[in-house]
Specification:
It contains 15 helices and 13 strands. By secondary structure, it is an alpha/beta fold. It has a seven-stranded mixed β-sheet, with helices on both faces. Strands 1-2-11 form a three-stranded mixed β-sheet. The chain has a three-stranded antiparallel β-sheet with strand order 10-13-12, with helices on one face. The longest helix has 19 residues. The structure holds pyridoxal-5'-phosphate.
Length: 395
């Protein structure tokens, strides 16, 4: 039987390649960091990781992970409610609640699971989910698994959101769902206006802080800190896989009844393994580090300002950003690929994005800044952009 299916897959794969959409994995042979080694042996400056606070190779976290490995073992071999919870898993949940100023937290293997398992246990076909059109794939999948009526508004478009809210008034409960930071442009959801509308039209609010937690706001508490509305968002989801050390793990945090219900009914929690003790132990230490100092946030914010100012001065077209994501607009798909290739030759690792990842005619290079970057790294990156940009006629 496989023969026919194999031919079908081979044809599909060729067609993906012909369209120039085939994703090749980039292989690195060093820890994640500002400087990484790639397969060719070349050392390059990394500007395409979610390592916003530079914690992926942090020695304190490595030590905390090793200590938990020694004291609590390698794996949990169980889901939480059967035999998979240690004291450190509970402690990590408390740390997360403390960080966001919420009542309770539930851990998942990844934020993909947190989003996949948040809607179906809470809402039914009597309810409505109103979702931003640029929300992460995991939110889209989570919504699909739930029978609630679906509404969609254009990215951050508050007129459209209001229209959806009006239409959804006959439903029992309504929830507005948004990413905190949208990963392609780096823009922040207009949470102040979303909360106003939620109040007016009686809706719950959920924010996915995956790209914003640790990054946005003076102390990195995320979008709720930026808009001074801590405690006003009903559900926050997030990842330990980006700014918070970059290993693995996700969470949902919010009102205690919501979290209790998820522990009873959320399928990725009930039917999937617990995070390993070393991730829980290192996670606890990471949140303690966050409480001690905002130095990493300060450095990251300074790096973002510096990079954007210099790039604009050089004549590049930069999308407005309120995060550590900086979209250098090129508009042309081929140009974005050539630019990324030439930048790699200059020792700068960045990613070119084009349709269908971003809208047609909006190809770009996405630069992700980190507290791990020193000024000399930023200068090297900016100078490479200027050199390659001139060669390719961008500036
Ligand atoms: C990265 C990301 C996720 C997935 O997080 P994982 O923990 O890697 O599964 C979910 N939502 C958003 C908005 C993200 O950016």
């Amino acid at each position: 039987m496989y023969g026919d299916f194999q031919k079908f897959l081979q044809k599909e794969l060729s067609s993906i390649k012909e369209q120039g959409l085939f994703k090749n994995e980039r292989i690195i042979t060093s820890p994640q960091g500002a400087i990484i080694k790639i397969e060719s042996g070349q050392e390059v400056l990394n500007f395409c990781a979610n390592n916003y606070l530079g914690l992926s190779d942090n020695n304190e976290l490595i030590e905390a992970a090793k200590k938990s490995l020694d004291e609590r073992g390698y794996g949990m071999s169980s889901v939480r409610f059967i035999c998979g919870t240690q004291d450190i898993h509970k402690q990590l949940e408390e740390k997360i609640s403390e960080f966001f100023g919420t009542e309770d937290t539930i851990l998942y293997a990844a934020c993909f699971d947190a989003n996949g398992g948040v809607f179906e246990p809470l809402l039914t076909d009597e309810d409505a989910i109103i979702s931003d059109s640029l929300n992460h794939a995991s939110i889209i999948d989570g919504v699909r698994l739930c029978k609630a009526k679906r509404y969609r508004y254009s990215n951050a478009d508050m007129n459209e959101l209001e229209k959806c809210l009006k239409e959804a008034q006959s439903q029992r409960f309504r929830i507005i769902v948004t990413d905190g930071v949208f990963s392609m442009d780096g823009n922040v959801a207009p949470l102040d206006k979303i909360l106003e509308l939620a109040d007016k039209y009686k809706a719950l609010v959920m924010v996915d802080e995956s790209h914003s937690a640790g990054v946005v706001g003076k102390t990195g508490r995320g979008v709720t800190e930026l808009y001074k509305c801590k405690g006003k968002v009903d559900i926050i989801t997030g990842t330990l896989g980006k700014a918070f050390g970059g290993a693995i793990g996700g969470f949902t945090t919010g009102h205690k009844e919501i979290i209790s219900m998820l522990r009873q009914r959320s399928r990725p929690y009930l039917f999937s393994n617990s995070i390993p003790p070393m991730v829980a132990g290192a996670g606890i230490h990471m949140f303690e580090m966050m409480n001690e100092t905002n130095d990493r946030q300060n450095k990251l914010h300074k790096n973002v300002d510096y990079f954007i100012t210099k790039m604009k001065d050089a004549g590049f077209d930069i999308k407005p950003t309120q995060s550590a994501i900086c979209a250098v607009m090129l508009y042309d798909a081929k140009l974005s690929q050539n630019m990324a290739t030439n930048l790699l030759n200059e020792g700068i690792y960045v990613t070119g994005f084009y349709y269908p990842v971003v809208p047609k005619g909006e190809a770009r290079i996405r630069v992700q800044l980190s507290a791990a970057h020193e000024t000399e790294h930023l200068n090297k990156c900016i100078n490479a952009f200027i050199k390659v940009g001139k060669e390719l006629g961008v500036i």
